[in-house]
Amino acid sequence: MIRFLAKRLGSGLLILFSVVTVVFFLFSFSFPNPESMAVGQRTDQATQEAIKKEFGLDQPLGMQYLLFLNDISPLSFHKNSSSSDLSEKYGKCVKLSFDRLTILIKTPFLRRSFQSRERTDTLIFQSFKGTFILALVSIIFAAFFGILLGVLSGIKANSFADQAIVFVSTLGISVPSFFSAIILAWLFGFVFHHITGLNMTGSWIDIDPFVGEYYQWKNLILPAVALGVRPLSIFTLLTRSSMLETLNKDFIKTAKSKGLTAKQILNKHALPNALNPVITAVSGWFASLLAGAFFVEYIFNWRGLGKLTIEALEMNDLPVVMGAILFIAFLFVVINIIVDILYVKLDPRIKLS
Q1: What pLDDT, in 10s, does the model give residues 68-85?
Q2: Which of 336, 334, 325 is nearest to 124 (CA)?
Q3: 270-310 pLDDT, tens digit each
Q4: Do 277 and 238 form a contact (C-beta atoms < 8 A)?
Q5: Cα–Cα distances in Å, from 24 out to 20, 106, 108?
Q6: Listed residue (110, 113, 102) closest to 75, CA to CA
């Protein structure tokens, strides 16, 4: 287990390093003068020079890259820097001072937003709450109905119900999430609003000038369904396929010969074996939903990481965009490691090696 974790952490760090490198140079060449985006084109030269110095933009590109790595790394190395400046920039940190070198142990610093001047990690974590809630509800919705329909389809193989479920599931896989979001918002939030009471747009928290913030959980229904349609369809087909394969196993035939009822065979023998690959797929899809909610959040005006990133792109707020991409890459690495471990726990036939 320890060797496996060490190998996966090593490959995960390599992936993150590659993402950091690609993201940095991609945005560096796409936006050669980011200081003008931070303060505006008409700002005086002195202010632009101060911004360039703050972000290290007055250095050669290679040095800018090293400074960026120094900021986002948990360990950063500094030469001839005062402790007050470092504490002001990075916040809480552990400082190890030597003759000509200062080493900091800190949380990754994703720099500050060009627009609000707030720390990028603060903005990301504030927005991530909405994305996490949306992805969690979507995956629960998709897993519950996907497994239910998949089991029904597998039991009723080749029947009209089975063919209808397979057809609808195939259609659901083919429809992009943003298209589902537009249709659901228009149909249930506008056309049938007087029946459903649902809104076309809105987040889980609304602000009233007299009451303050209050929760609007009904706004979660449409974006959760829109985001969950594709994984629901995939879970349905995967459960159906796994059920059909399991029901043809020898131990199922043995259970039937012993006189067990269909319900006992299904609950005690078929389902536990058929759901192993499905549960693993659910875990993997959860990471995809966390990263794939961008357009759904934007369409429903849902306050989350996707909406924050798209708005930052529109405003050319590069630290927020780069920070969000790196945060999503980190989530994928961590969740994929958890899924691999979960797969082994669920299926003893799979070895970590």
Answers
A1: 999 999 988 887 655 556
A2: 325
A3: 787 778 778 778 877 887 888 778 889 989 999 899 889 98
A4: yes
A5: 6, 21, 15
A6: 102
Phi–psi pair at 96, nearest 5 degrees: -115, 110
C-alpha 268/C-alpha 256 separation (Å) is 12
Question: Tokens in use for 238?
Answer: 């995967």
Contact residues for 284 (Cβ-Cβ < 8 A; gap 6+): 335, 336, 339
pTM: 0.84
